[in-house]
C-alpha cells in the first residue's frame, strides 16, 4: 500500500488562482490599515482556497510485475555450421537458468529461423514482433545468441533497454568463398565472353595464394584452373550452343573451412547468333522471290546473299553475256570455298541448267551432313527431268516428286504430326486461311526408297506440302509449292505466311526454342516447371537429381499436342539435373551461394549500431558466459566479463482509495472559527 496527496480542484485552476490573489490583496490591505484581525481572516481565506483545491489522500494497492529479458536465439542455416548450434543451445539453457534465478525477472525466448526464400536471418523482424507483444516498461534487457550476421538491420527498432550479443563463432574459424561478377545475360556464339571470378578467404585462413576452380557447362565434365586468391580474375569463355547455357563454377572444399555451400556459383547465359548468313538461289524471277527477300531482309541480323538466274543458258538471243551483268557472280567461291560460312541455303524454284555443276551441289550435300541447312521451295520445275531432285542433292531431299503438278486451288492444313511440331503448332487463325493455286505432288520417300521426313503440312487431298527432315547433323525442308506469296498478298484473306517461313528458317538454323524434341525447365523460387516437347504421343517419366544426389521420378502430363509438363519443388538450393529418355537438361534453383552463406565468420559489426544505442556489449561464447549485473538506465551496460540488465520496477495497481483531507464540515467549522476569532479580536481593540 502506497499513499500520496493529490489535488482535484472544485473550480477551474485559473479561478482558484484568481481568488487566491484577491485573498492576498485583501489581507495586505487589512494589515496596512492596521486591522488587528487580518491574520485570522487570512487563515480563513487560506482554508477556503485549500478546500477549493480539493486535496485528497490517494492510496494504491500494488502488485509488483517481473522484469522481462528478451532472448533472441538464432537458428538460421549459418548457425548450423560446425558446432555452433550445440554451443548456442547450451548457452541459451544456462543463461535462462541464471536469469530466472534472479529476483523478479523472467525470460521470453524467441527462436529466429531462416527468412522466407533467400532473405537470410531476419532477427530484427522477430525483435519488432516481440516488442509489440510485451510492455516496453517491463523490458530489462535484450540478449541475442547468434553469429551476428543479421540481414534486416535496416528495420531495427528503437530498443527500450540494453542489448547484448553473445556470438557463437570461434577465433579459429575460416571460410573460402567464390563469387562471379560481370556475367552478361546474353552472349554471342563463337565469340569469347569474359566473366570475372574472385576467391576470398575470410577469418583465420591458411596462407595460400592460389586455389583450383572447376568450370562445367550444362553438367558436362568440368575443366580445372588455378586462380589467385583475393583478387579479381577475368575468365574467357565460349558458349557451346544457342539458348540457355548453365555454367557452374566450383572451388573444391578445403580442409578446415566452415562450409562449401559458398564454394559454387551458377551463371545462366543465353547464347545468341551475331549474324545469320543466308544464301538465296532463285532459279527464275517469280512473285515468290520478293516474298523471300522481304522475309529475310526484315530481320536486321540476317546477311542475305541473293543469287537469281535471270537468263537461262538455253536462251540464245545473240546478246553478249558481258552486257547482261554488271559483275560476274562468284559461284565457285560461294559453293566451294565459303559454303560452310552460311547458316541456311534456300533453293527457290531452282532447276538444273548447268549453271551450278554437280561438284558444287555435292559440296552442298556435304555441307548439310556436317550441320548445314537447306530449304527447297519447289515449283513446277521440281516435277521435271531438270528437277533438283535429279542432282546429288537427292541423297538428302526428304521426298521425291511423282512428276505431277496439280494446278488447282487448295487450302493448306496442318497435319496431325504438324500439330505437335513447333514449326507449325498453334499457328494463328488455322482453318480460315486463303487458298493456294498450285502444288507439286511428292511422296515422303528418299531416293533409295526409305521413309522420308516428317509431313507437317498437307495440301490437296491430304498430299504432303511441307516436309522436314534431319540428315546426319544437318536439316532439310521441302515446300512442295511456290504459292506461299499468295498469303503475303492477302489472297482470300491470306494466312500466316511470315510466321510459317520465319519458324521454318529458325528451325533449320537450329534455334533452341523450335527444337521438336527438347527438354528444359523454368524456375520460380524453389519450384521448377519441367517441359518436354516431343513428336511422340507419350514420353517416359522424367528423373530429377538434386544437388545432394537425391533422385525423384515424375510423370509428364500432356498439356497440348506435343507439349508435356511436370512440376517439382526442390528443397535444396543448387544445380538440378533432369533426364527424360535420351534428353538431359540442367537448371539452377536459387542462388548457388544462399545469403546465409555469403558471410559465415561470426562478427558483431552488423549489429554494432543497435548494441551501442543503449551501451550494450558483444561477447564470444567460447570465452564462457558473462555474469549478470543490475545497472541503472543510461549507465554503461557491459564490461569485462559482465552484461547489465536494467530493473524496471513495473507493477499492477489492484485497488485505489481516495480520502478528502478537507471535508465540507471541517472547512465550515474552521472558516467560521477563524472569522469569529478575527471579529472578536477587532471588537476588543
Topology overview:
Layout: E1 2-7, H1 13-32, H2 38-53, E2 55-64, E3 67-74, H3 84-101, E4 105-112, H4 123-133, E5 139-146, E6 163-167, E7 174-181, E8 186-188, E9 193-203, E10 210-217, E11 223-228, E12 233-237, E13 243-250, E14 264-272, E15 276-282, H5 287-297, E16 302-308, H6 331-337, E17 344-348, H7 358-369, E18 373-377, E19 400-406, E20 413-414, E21 439-443, E22 454-458, E23 464-471, E24 474-479, H8 485-488, H9 497-508, E25 518-524, E26 527-533, E27 542-545, E28 551-554, E29 557-560, E30 563-569, E31 574-580, E32 583-589, H10 608-613, E33 618-620, E34 627-630, E35 638-639, E36 642-645, E37 651-660, H11 664-684
Helix pairs in contact: 1-2, 2-11
How does this model look, in words?
The protein is α/β, with parallel strands linked by helices. The protein folds into five domains: 2-63 and 653-684, no CATH class; 66-170 and 602-649, Rossmann fold (3-Layer(aba) Sandwich), CATH 3.40.50; 174-268, Immunoglobulins (Immunoglobulin-like); 276-508, 3-Layer(aba) Sandwich (Rossmann fold); 518-589, Immunoglobulin-like, CATH 2.60.40.10. The strands form nine sheets. An eight-stranded mixed β-sheet has the order 16-15-17-18-24-23-22-20. α1 packs antiparallel against α2 (38-53) and α2 packs antiparallel against α11. The longest helix has 21 residues, at 664-684.
Amino acid at each position: 500500500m502506497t499513499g500520496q496527496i493529490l489535488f482535484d480542484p472544485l473550480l477551474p485552476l485559473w479561478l482558484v488562482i484568481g481568488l487566491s490573489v484577491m485573498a492576498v490583496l485583501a489581507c495586505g490591505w487589512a494589515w496596512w490599515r492596521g486591522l488587528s484581525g487580518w491574520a485570522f481572516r487570512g487563515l480563513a481565506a487560506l482554508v477556503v482556497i485549500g478546500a477549493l483545491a480539493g486535496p485528497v489522500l490517494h492510496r494504491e494497492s500494488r502488485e509488483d510485475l517481473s522484469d522481462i529479458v528478451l532472448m533472441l536465439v538464432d537458428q538460421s542455416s549459418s548457425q548450423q555450421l560446425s558446432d555452433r548450434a550445440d554451443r548456442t543451445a547450451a548457452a541459451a539453457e544456462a543463461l535462462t537458468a541464471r536469469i530466472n534465478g534472479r529476483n523478479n525477472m523472467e525470460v521470453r525466448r524467441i527462436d529466429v529461423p531462416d527468412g522466407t526464400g533467400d532473405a537470410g536471418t531476419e532477427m530484427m523482424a522477430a525483435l519488432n514482433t516481440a516488442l509489440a507483444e510485451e510492455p516496453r516498461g517491463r523490458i530489462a534487457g535484450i540478449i541475442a545468441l547468434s553469429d551476428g550476421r543479421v540481414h534486416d538491420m535496416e528495420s531495427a527498432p528503437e530498443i527500450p533497454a540494453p542489448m547484448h550479443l553473445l556470438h557463437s563463432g570461434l577465433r579459429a574459424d575460416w571460410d573460402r568463398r567464390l563469387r562471379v561478377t560481370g556475367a552478361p545475360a546474353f552472349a554471342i556464339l563463337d565469340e569469347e565472353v569474359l566473366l570475372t571470378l574472385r576467391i576470398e578467404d575470410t577469418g583465420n585462413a591458411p596462407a595460400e595464394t592460389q586455389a583450383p576452380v572447376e568450370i562445367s557447362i550444362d553438367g558436362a565434365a568440368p575443366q580445372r584452373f588455378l586462380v589467385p586468391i583475393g583478387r579479381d580474375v577475368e575468365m574467357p569463355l565460349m558458349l557451346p550452343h544457342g539458348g540457355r547455357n548453365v555454367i557452374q563454377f566450383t572451388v573444391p572444399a578445403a580442409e578446415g573451412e566452415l562450409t562449401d555451400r559458398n564454394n559454387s556459383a551458377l551463371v545462366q547465359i543465353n547464347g545468341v547468333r551475331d549474324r545469320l548468313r543466308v544464301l538465296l538461289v532463285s532459279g527464275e524471277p517469280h512473285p515468290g522471290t520478293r516474298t523471300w527477300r522481304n522475309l529475310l531482309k526484315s530481320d536486321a541480323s540476317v546477311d542475305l546473299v541473293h543469287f537469281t538466274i535471270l537468263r537461262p543458258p538455253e536462251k540464245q538471243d545473240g546478246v553478249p553475256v558481258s552486257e547482261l551483268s554488271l559483275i560476274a557472280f562468284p559461284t565457285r567461291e560461294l559453293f566451294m570455298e565459303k559454303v560452310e560460312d552460311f547458316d541456311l541455303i534456300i533453293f527457290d524454284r531452282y532447276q538444273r541448267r548447268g549453271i551450278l555443276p554437280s561438284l558444287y551441289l555435292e559440296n552442298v550435300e556435304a555441307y548439310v551432313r556436317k550441320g548445314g541447312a537447306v530449304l527447297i521451295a519447289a515449283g513446277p520445275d521440281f516435277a521435271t527431268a531438270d528437277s533438283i531432285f535429279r542432282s546429288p542433292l537427292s541423297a538428302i531431299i526428304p521426298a521425291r516428286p511423282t512428276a505431277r503438278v496439280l494446278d488447282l486451288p487448295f487450302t493448306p492444313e496442318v497435319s496431325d504430326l504438324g500439330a505437335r511440331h513447333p514449326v507449325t503448332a498453334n499457328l494463328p487463325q488455322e482453318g480460315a486461311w486463303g487458298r493456294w493455286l498450285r502444288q507439286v505432288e511428292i511422296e515422303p520417300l528418299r531416293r533409295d526408297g526409305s521413309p522420308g521426313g516428317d509431313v507437317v503440312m498437307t495440301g490437296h487431298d491430304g498430299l504432303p506440302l511441307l516436309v522436314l527432315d534431319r540428315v546426319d547433323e544437318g536439316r532439310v525442308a521441302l515446300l512442295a509449292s511456290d504459292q506461299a506469296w499468295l498469303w503475303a498478298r492477302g489472297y482470300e484473306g491470306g494466312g500466316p505466311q511470315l510466321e510459317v517461313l520465319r519458324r521454318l528458317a529458325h528451325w533449320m538454323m537450329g534455334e533452341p526454342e523450335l527444337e521438336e524434341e527438347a527438354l528444359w525447365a523454368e524456375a520460380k523460387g524453389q519450384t521448377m516447371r519441367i517441359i518436354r516437347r516431343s513428336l511422340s504421343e507419350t514420353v517416359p517419366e522424367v528423373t530429377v537429381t538434386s544437388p545432394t544426389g537425391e533422385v525423384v521420378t515424375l510423370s509428364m502430363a500432356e498439356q497440348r499436342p506435343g507439349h508435356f509438363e511436370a512440376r517439382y519443388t526442390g528443397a535444396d538450393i543448387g544445380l538440378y539435373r533432369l533426364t527424360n529418355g535420351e534428353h538431359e537438361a540442367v537448371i539452377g534453383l536459387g542462388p548457388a551461394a544462399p545469403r546465409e552463406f555469403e558471410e559465415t565468420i561470426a562478427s558483431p559489426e552488423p549489429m554494432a549500431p543497435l548494441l551501442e544505442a543503449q551501451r550494450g556489449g558483444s561477447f564470444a561464447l567460447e570465452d564462457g558466459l558473462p555474469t549478470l549485473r543490475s545497472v541503472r538506465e543510461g549507465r554503461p551496460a557491459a564490461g569485462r566479463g559482465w552484461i547489465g540488465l536494467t530493473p524496471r520496477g513495473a507493477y499492477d495497481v489492484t485497488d485505489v482509495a481516495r480520502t478528502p483531507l478537507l471535508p465540507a464540515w471541517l472547512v465550515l467549522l474552521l472558516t467560521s472559527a477563524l472569522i469569529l476569532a478575527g471579529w472578536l479580536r477587532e471588537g476588543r481593540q
